[in-house]
Sequence to fold (125 residues):
Amino acid sequence: MLSILRFVSLILLLCVTITPLVGLGLAATEFGTRWLVRDVLPAIFASMSNDRLLVQAADGTLLSSLTLTGITHHATHSMAKPTFVDSVHLQWHPGALFSGLLHIQDLRIDGIHHDIPHENSPPDP
Fold:
């Protein structure tokens, strides 16, 4: 019985330590960042609010400089047209989060396109 308890404890310890390391590894690589931004983030948006989010390209990592291009957001609960953003560039210091600070060195958002429908006009099909 004691050996089963040790085995289960070892499995739980491995799960608790490996999961954050895998997440950190994904955030630290360009491949992992692209996967998180292009696949996981839109799935989270869809499951939480039924909104659609599309990111065409992601360059960089979540732990350094990151540039997202071709962002489209469509709120399903709204009659408005989708919002388009040509590019977003973020350069930050994620290590500052451990001391309770959000340290953003550079944030640029280029080409925001959003049409606000008038109340009296019918929505476009």
